[in-house]
Amino acid sequence: MTLLDRPAAVTETAAPLAPAARLLPALAAVYRAQLARARVARIPLLFVATFQSLGILVMMRGVVDAGENSAARAVVAGSSVLVVAFVALNLLAQYFGKLRATGGLDHYATLPVPPAAVVLGAAGAYASFTVPGALVTAAVGAVMFSLPLANLWVLLAVVPLAGAALSGLGAACGLLAPRQEIATLLGQLGMSAALLLGVLPVDHLPQAVRWLRDLLPSTYGVEAFARTFGPGPDWAAVAGDLAVCAAVGLASLTLATWAYRRATTR
Amino acid sequence: MSDTDRPAPQAGPQGDLGGTGRYTGQCCTVRDLAKTYRSPSRGLGRGRSRDAAAAGAERGATGEVRANDGIDLDVRCGEIFGLLGPNGAGKSTLVRQLTGLLRPDRGSVHILGHDIVRHPERAARLLAYLGQESTALDELTVALAAETTGRLRGLTPARARGETADVLAELGLEPIAHRPLAKLSGGQRRLACFAAALVGERPLLVLDEPTTGMDPVARRAVWSAVDRRRAERGTTVLLVTHNVIEAETVLDRVAVVDRGRVIACDTPGGLKALVDGDVRLDLVWRTEAPTDVPAVARIAEQAERSGRRWTVRTSPEQARELVTAVTTGPAFAALDDFTLATPSLEDAYLKLGGRGGGLAK
């Protein structure tokens, strides 16, 4: 970004270069366009994401008792974060996979825009689009499982941070996958992992699966949110989980930006 | 539109974007440009297969795909320069190299004095590119697609909005400004993408088959917008086309591309002079050609056949004899239609050794 903003060393005989777009204005423009795009094309999918999570809540209600227990907390938190995984990981992987396969990335690559602006703008828009679905799922789940609604606000931290981690992974999958179908496959697999490992109560999982669960960034979003349903939540642990999400988000978005650069400069 | 409708290329204000320097050299210089896709399987991994397929060029015994080979070009400032060739000739590969999207194996590309092979990122600050794909903009409304593109070209929000309004009015897109591109017809979508290419002015416009699918009204809007920019600001246009009529009417100069090489470069008139003296006779038979007529039998070998249509390129004298022969007696009874025409760019292209059949008429 700073590299692009710096006036290029121009020889005497060369025409002046037009200014490049700066990171934040370009990010804002991409974000706004992606949000508008999502409104046109993604609303049905957002309903699918929310109904899928509500369906899982209903299904799990048949197995898990309502009230203050770790299983109920895990189901409600897992279902809420699943909305984020569906949109940010799965749909974003598909979007970037399609853009890359069809040559749509050329549009951005021939504009003087910092790669981070395109990746962060798209990731941010996809993540913010999941906020209503995650809130609805969490509220319905809390009522259904008789959990307190007082700390639902914590979703406003969980969704952006888990969203950053998952959308970074989604964007990286979409941009690195050699073919569009593989990008779709990776997105679907990631979402399935978030579903199976996030929603099922952790006490019942075998040790090997728990290790796998610890490797998944959405787990830390689920854990952070689940902790806040208990009496006297351990806020330090919540902050610790969210810090893991933030760190993974930073790493995965950096990876995605690198992958974008790689896909556009050949 | 004819050549005489348009102002002559100007050597004045091009490239002057308000900076202190004034550039007076060539707009675009290409020397010995070459690209070979070495391993198709590896190419697949990085999306190169698309380029290789688009290039469609020579495939060697070792599996190498030569997309282009030893291309030299000089595009002058302020001219409308065309790359003409059939689909798969390597035009789009060349354009991707000029726009910094594809790194050549060898050779140099200079745009307005900047080395694009060494600094591909500068291309985006010198030129606006209209590619063949609209996936990046498909789900946006026409107005937002243009405005966002302008903002990503470094315009302030107010300026991007203002320029978008001007361009949409200029191209007659206002009635559909608030419809998503994906819901438009192919020609309208193309025009909307062209609008996006115009927001955030650049001294060079690189347009890859801009008028594909457009109706005559939209085509006229495109060429008027191009002409206006050239007359007012000395904008240079590099146009990729496989449409012969468009090439003849719009271009100042044209490079004929075939199998990844430039086989000729001249004005459309200069290229047609290569086949001066020849004429083209198109014969369309009702069913079968009457090969029992001696004159028809004589040209049977020479004619290029496409179903019921025969095309013969020959001298005016022989053409006159042929017309006499086929407009009398049994040949006339078998004849559905015929046209006698002066040579077109396509005839020049074939004379130069290009492959037939790929150019649109």
Automatic annotation (TrEMBL), chain A:
Transmembrane parts of this sequence: 43-64, 76-96, 117-147, 153-176, 183-202, 235-260
Topology relative to the membrane: Multi-pass membrane protein
Predominant subcellular localization, coarse grouping: membrane
Protein source organism: Kitasatospora cystarginea
tRNA-binding in keyword set: no
ABC-2 type transporter transmembrane domain ranges (all copies): 39-226
Pfam families: ABC2_membrane
Transmembrane found in the keyword field: yes
UniProt-annotated location(s): Membrane
Protein name (Swiss-Prot/TrEMBL): ABC transporter permease
Keywords: Membrane, Transmembrane, Transmembrane helix
UniProtKB/TrEMBL annotation, chain B:
Domain ABC transporter: 47-284
Intracellular or extracellular location(s): Cell membrane
GO MF, any single term: ATP binding
Domain of life from the UniProt record: Bacteria
UniProt-listed InterPro entries: AAA+_ATPase, ABC_transporter-like_ATP-bd, ABC_transporter-like_CS, ABC_transporter_ATP-binding, P-loop_NTPase
Sequence segments annotated as region (Disordered): 1-23, 38-57
Pfam family, one: ABC_tran
Protein name: ABC transporter ATP-binding protein
